[in-house]
Amino acid sequence: MPELPEAETIARGLRAPLLGRSIEDVEVLKEDLLSVPKAEFRASLRHRSVHGVGRRGKNVVVEVGPGSARGGDVDRLVVNLGMSGRLLRRRPAEPAPLPGHTGLHFRLDDGSALIYRDVRRFGRLAVLPPDAYRDWSRGLGPEPLADGFRARHLIGALSRSRSPVRSWLLDQRRIAGVGNIYANEALARARIHPGRAARDLSPDEGRTLHRVLRSVLREAIDAGGTTLRDYRTAEGSEGSYADALRVYGREGHPCTRCAGTIVRIRLGGRSAFLCPRCQPAGQQHDSRRRTRPT
DNA sequence: ATCGTGACCTGGCTGC
DNA sequence: TGCAGCCAGGTCACGA
């Protein structure tokens, strides 16, 4: 669930409370969330201050500066939330026991805390020095909301792949941050069948996909993300974009555009949702008709 | 190289 | 009510 808009919402919610705080200690309750031994992870974060909170793809990125007694670099704590990960802020006055499935507990110098909770434990956390972060980031595709991400880049990249366009959108090496919900929603708005080969899309369809993908992601960020079950913001509240979904999870319901019935198909081992009337398989839309799908 | 499939882990829902 | 079976937003490794 946590895709780009959810990671962005969490990062924004953590920025003000975390900025300038120092990490007093890290308690690791679920070591399998880490790729290094917990002692090493703990040592890499203790007594370091938070310089920034951002996002790359679906990952929340916390920049930690050098601790008081050490010189050196700004490292980054990269949090991949997997399917059910939550990053929750605890205010100083909240004593409360840790919630179930808490994996990590970061104690901050103002008495507040940051909790990583993950029921399914598909999430991963790592502290990366600058060069390792650069390598990791280079392995991800472009940010779809970046100013430099233009329609021609998307069209060019799509034209080189025979993969079904929905699978293409899910591949983080090709484009960062898109998951199953927003891939399905963008394709529905662009009226493109998710199973069509990426390279078979017309340039017009590529331009449309570029536009609607960005608008879907922006609207979802404005709504605080999509809560279907697990996702919560840093304050523990739900995102409201589920109300705006047109196809995802709406199997059997009417299409908001043509009143046809939304169906679910299996594609690459996972569910895809579409309106068969608005998103016909195998053929392209008439490019002379300059309709503006929304 | 590219693409598709299954595994990872746990909880919630459905249907018998 | 109990329980087996199925499903889930993500990523990774493997084999065709």
Could you give the topology of this structure?
Blueprint: H1 4-18, E1 22-28, H2 38-45, E2 48-56, E3 59-64, E4 75-80, E5 85-90, E6 102-108, E7 113-118, E8 124-128, H3 130-138, H4 151-158, H5 165-170, H6 180-190, H7 203-222, E9 263-267, E10 270-274
Antiparallel strand pairs: 1-2, 1-6, 2-3, 3-4, 4-8, 5-7, 6-7, 9-10
Helix pairs in contact: 1-7, 4-7, 6-7
The chain binds a DNA duplex (16 and 16 nucleotides) through loops.
Low-confidence stretches: 284-294
Structural class: alpha+beta
The rounded Rg comes to 21 Å
Number of strands: 10
Task: State the share of residues found in helices, binned by percent.
Answer: 25-40%
> What is the average of the pLDDT values?
90
Question: Which word captures the global form?
Answer: globular
Strand order of the largest sheet: 5-7-6-1-2-3-4-8
Query: What is the N-to-C order of secondary-structure elements (H for helix, E for strand)?
Result: HEHEEEEEEEHHHHHEE
- The fraction of residues in strands falls at 15-25%
Number of helices: 7
The description of the largest β-sheet is: 8 strands, antiparallel
Termini separation comes to: 23 Å
Structure description:
This protein has 294 residues and is of the alpha+beta class. The chain is 26% helix and 21% strand. It has helices spanning 4-18, 38-45, 130-138, 151-158, 165-170, 180-190, 203-222; strands at 22-28, 48-56, 59-64, 75-80, 85-90, 102-108, 113-118, 124-128, 263-267, 270-274. The strands form two sheets. Strands 5-7-6-1-2-3-4-8 form an eight-stranded antiparallel beta sheet. Strands 9-10 form a two-stranded antiparallel sheet. The longest helix has 20 residues, at 203-222. 40% of the residues are buried. The chain binds a DNA duplex (16 and 16 nucleotides) through loops.
